[in-house]
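To illustrate the input format used throughout this study, we show a single complete record. The first block contains the structure-token representation of the backbone; no residue identities are included at this stage. The design step must infer an amino acid for every position from geometry alone.
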């Protein structure tokens, strides 16, 4: 039997470092359920302990201490015993758990049962989450198991500490001092991930450096893997396809070349000797200038299978489907499908193809990627972006659960929803963490890390449920305040869509940094880097024709899915300009013209941000002053920039269509030239 003593919660200022794991003191009856001297005990699995179980017991101890608050301890009566039964006989499935009060034995007040120690850790976090959101111990009875096996974060962190598309400071990884020095942040990070059930982390950028495969980096990775193992996290590495040439002394990286195959085999052996549970490689190949098998006339399957053979049954190769090529004249939205779908059935069993949520690139709104459902003989995984490259960085509040839900719940028309298609495999999120004290660059961006993990665990959760539980743990349990915060969050992503890219527009962000409007940008080297390519606007109309009259990207979807988007008169207006080129004066089902509707959407977005700022101002006093002020300041930026987006876009459209502002709508505050002249080379994340 293992018992442990109560650990005091450190008295941090409310600077956000504690994330959703604050365990703020409960009040009233909920608090008196808990006892200061609650012993947490491992009663099963032969009393066998493990680092994972020790972490679970420590977390329970820490959580109960926090939830009780310091004043309550002495007053409490008989101890509540929380017991952990982590034996094989429990039958909860890998990582699953059951939480239940033990009604017939008051001394054994509560049971966390799981068939493995990791399930007990997950169950401990789940119990603390339930208590933290205000549930009574006696009312908690839950049985859960993860919906998909792989729930991972992909870091776009470079070894020099810069994070590509990172808006929360520098990288959390201190490669320079590893392996000797392991920052406490690495443990706190693993703990936060474990609290959500995240079980895999790719530590480096998909635009990878080959030297991270060298032995000195393997030693660093080994230290990390060792530290994260008890938290159930396996490490993965982004591998640069040309590594055999870059660091291996070979003159080719051709996947069919025996020397190349032998090099990767030896490399895999070297890694697995140091890290027996190494997860595997993530590969971006033949995309945006990265090397790949096509450099040698080989296919993606040739490349992926070569690495898969090197790894064998020890791990997985995750091969990205984010490909497009300047030489390819086809609509960029079609290219991944065209390259990958013909390869269905050719990938080795330990290869996963990782597909972004939409066919272009993490836009505020895209239809789901047509590859989902179209490769029944390939293991497909969803790639989401938690860092907000195209949604105002960490400066704008945009809660992304509604975006991900839209994709996960979409019916592919080919054997299930996107969530069902990826359920046997998993989901990856491009991480938004950094060296900022609050981890994510803004307090509300923590909610996106949280929501990603919760949806990976259970995609059936609603955006509202997740927002509510996050707000209660992170800010306050006051129901009125939780209600206001939840309402802000639920409307926030749609607000961003409205003031940036309404009615199905996409990729209107300015060059390189992707911050702020740039619909006038038409002259970049590659056509599909230009906002003009995506809006196709001119004097008479706007929108990208992806019907059979245009690029025919629509035909990549199942017929019944394509049918719902085929007619501009009946399409969901959220996707209108994604699939159709329409005249400015066409009348929409709303009775308004395209121009009137567009301006109305921009205005709706601006107004929604004002509403959010008002709601937040109303929470002064309900939220600690430090975080209240920080969020208020960000919302002031967002209010200003929502207007900037609206005005700059409207000014540009007017320069094309020559139309007056619709009745009641205010003209842009500045001239188009003034908007065009803005530049900010210091924007982070580039
Ligand atoms: C785009 C980013 C770029 C990434 C690329 C990718 O702008 O920085 O390298 O995606 O996913 O969104 O590989």
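Output of the design step:
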């Amino acid at each position: 039997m293992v018992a442990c003593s109560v650990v005091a919660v450190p008295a941090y200022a409310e600077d956000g470092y504690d994330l959703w794991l604050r365990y703020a003191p409960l009040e009233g009856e909920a608090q008196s359920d808990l006892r200061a001297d609650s012993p947490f005990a491992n009663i099963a699995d032969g009393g066998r302990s493990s680092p994972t179980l020790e972490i679970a017991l420590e977390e329970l101890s820490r959580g109960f201490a926090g939830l009780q608050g310091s004043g309550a301890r002495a007053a409490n009566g008989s101890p509540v015993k929380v017991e952990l039964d982590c034996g094989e006989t429990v039958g909860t499935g890998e990582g699953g758990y059951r939480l239940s009060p033990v009604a017939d034995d008051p001394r054994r007040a509560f049971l966390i049962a799981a068939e493995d120690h990791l399930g007990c850790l997950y169950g401990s976090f789940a119990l603390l989450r339930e208590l933290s959101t205000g549930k009574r111990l006696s009312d908690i009875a839950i049985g859960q198991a993860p919906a998909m096996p792989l729930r991972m974060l992909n870091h776009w962190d470079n070894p020099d500490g810069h994070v590509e598309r990172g808006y929360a400071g520098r990288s959390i990884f201190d490669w320079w001092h590893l392996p000797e020095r392991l920052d406490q942040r690495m443990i706190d990070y693993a703990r936060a991930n474990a609290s959500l059930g995240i079980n895999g982390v790719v530590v480096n950028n998909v635009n990878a450096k080959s030297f991270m495969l060298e032995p000195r980096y393997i030693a660093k990775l080994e230290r990390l893997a060792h530290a994260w193992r008890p938290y159930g996290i396996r490490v993965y590495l982004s591998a640069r396809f040309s590594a055999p040439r870059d660091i291996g002394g070979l003159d080719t990286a051709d996947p069919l070349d025996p020397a190349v195959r032998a090099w990767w085999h030896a490399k895999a052996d070297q890694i697995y000797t140091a890290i027996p549970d190494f997860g595997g490689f993530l590969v971006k190949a033949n995309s945006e200038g990265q090397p790949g098998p096509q450099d040698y006339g080989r296919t993606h399957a040739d490349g992926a299978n070569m690495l898969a053979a090197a790894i064998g049954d020890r791990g997985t190769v995750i091969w990205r489907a984010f490909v497009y090529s300047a030489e390819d004249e086809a609509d960029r939205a079609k290219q991944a499908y065209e390259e990958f779908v013909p390869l269905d059935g050719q990938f080795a069993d330990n290869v996963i193809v990782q597909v972004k949520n939409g066919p272009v690139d993490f836009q505020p709104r895209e239809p789901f990627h047509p590859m989902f459902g179209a490769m029944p003989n390939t293991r497909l995984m969803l790639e989401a972006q938690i860092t907000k490259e195209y949604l105002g960085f960490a400066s704008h509040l945009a809660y992304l659960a509604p975006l991900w839900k839209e994709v996960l719940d979409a019916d592919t028309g080919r054997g299930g929803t996107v969530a069902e298609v990826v359920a046997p495999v998993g989901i990856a999120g491009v991480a938004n963490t950094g060296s900022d004290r609050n981890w994510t660059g803004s307090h509300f961006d923590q909610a996106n890390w949280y929501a990603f993990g919760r949806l990976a665990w259970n995609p059936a959760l609603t955006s509202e449920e997740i927002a509510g539980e996050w707000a209660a743990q992170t800010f306050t349990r006051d129901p009125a305040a939780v209600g206001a915060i939840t309402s802000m969050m639920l409307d926030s992503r749609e607000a961003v869509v409205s003031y940036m890219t309404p009615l199905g527009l996409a990729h209107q962000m300015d060059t390189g940094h992707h911050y702020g409007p740039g619909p006038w940008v038409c002259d970049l080297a590659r056509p599909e880097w230009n906002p003009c390519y995506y809006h196709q606007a001119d004097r008479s109309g706007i929108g990208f024709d992806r019907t059979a009259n245009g690029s025919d990207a629509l035909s990549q979807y199942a017929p019944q899915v394509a049918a719902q988007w085929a007619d501009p008169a009946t399409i969901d207006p959220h996707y209108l300009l994604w699939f159709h080129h329409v005249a400015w004066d066409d009348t929409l089902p709303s009775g308004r013209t395209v121009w009137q509707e567009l301006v109305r959407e921009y205005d709706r977005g601006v107004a929604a941000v004002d509403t959010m700022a008002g709601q937040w101002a109303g929470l002064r006093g309900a939220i600690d002053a430090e975080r209240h002020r920080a969020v208020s300041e960000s919302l002031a930026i967002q209010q200003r920039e929502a207007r900037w987006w609206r005005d700059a876009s409207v000014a540009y459209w007017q320069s094309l269509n020559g139309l007056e502002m619709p009745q009641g709508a205010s003209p842009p505050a500045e001239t188009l030239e003034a908007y065009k002249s803005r530049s900010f080379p210091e924007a982070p994340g580039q």
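Structural context for interpreting the output: The mean pLDDT is 94. The chain has three domains: 28-144, 150-461, 499-676.
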